[in-house]
Amino acid sequence: MRRRVVIAPDSFKGSASATRVAAALADGWRSRRPDDEIVILPVADGGEGTLDVFAAAVPGARRRPLRVTGPDGRGHDGEWLALPGGVAVVELARVSGLPLMRALDPLGAQTTGVGQALAAALADGAREILVALGGSASTDGAAGALAALGARFLDARGASLRPGGGALAELAAVDLAGLAPAPAGGVRCLVDVDTPLLGQAGAAAVFGPQKGASPADIARLDLGLRRLAGLLAGTPEAPGAGAAGGTAYGLAAAWGATLVPGVPAIAEVAGLPAALAGADWLVTGEGRFDRTSLTGKVVGGVVALARGAGVPVLVAAGQIDAPEPDGVVAAVALAALAGGTAPAMAEPTRWLRAAGARLAADAA
Predict the structure, then answer these.
(1) Is the CATH code 3.30.300.70 the one for domain 50-263?
(2) Bridge pairing between strands 87-91 and 75-83
(3) What PANTHER family is this protein classified in (predicted)?
């Protein structure tokens, strides 16, 4: 019996893009079930790969290259995406992401490149901007981005602060007089976490360690964000305000951006809800499937959409460290197929194909 199969994975970070993952899973599926109709729809959560998902899903999307200041202050080639209708997409990971750092610098890393990309989109006439927040190297509360858009962050002597979240501990005043106005259609930040800005559950404490922050660094970064929150009329406790080192908070407080969950917004643009109508199976996946996968990540969002549409789900992941949630019929780990994590990461395409074939057999 011919089945309709929708393949909608996230990227396997450090191993394969979402597009590559989807293609390999499809190849493996076809090796077992060549007559099935396969719909490939890579998805992202607002982090790495979001720009590629929009580019693949939206006819007429145009990549716009630009030179930016990277998160460690070095020049870097970046890009943003122009969609029909005057909509621009800026992916933080492309211009200020953690992989762009030569060495971790939790206090000095900056979001200047984000602001430069936003400024380029404004200069191009963008009427609405989507900012994909995820994979950041910094914890500067969007200070770098806002400075690139004309804001000034000053110490007690009236001097401009040096870049980076560590300098915010010396913040005494914020001057928004020169800040470029947001586009008429508004700004939406696509977030993949519900972390607030401050405290033990905030941006510095939760995500600082993966950016190289020591306990002392975390305390300094949180102090800086607290000073920033005291000077901007925002909502630091809002879910998602701590996304991308507080970039979500800064853009919301100073530029009027709204925070929206990334997965549903990106899935809608990719056409996933429509594709699920009449589908027999949904195949999704990510590098590591664990308990956090169901909170803001691609797999959790995709599973929820499939559950609502009554479509059973199959999951492929590099590693699996959680029980299968409701709606997931079967899950396969590439590490189990390859005999370890290292061989799975060394040949991701091979083992993704094997996973696709295994899931097709499970669906027979």
Answers:
(1) no
(2) antiparallel
(3) GLYCERATE KINASE
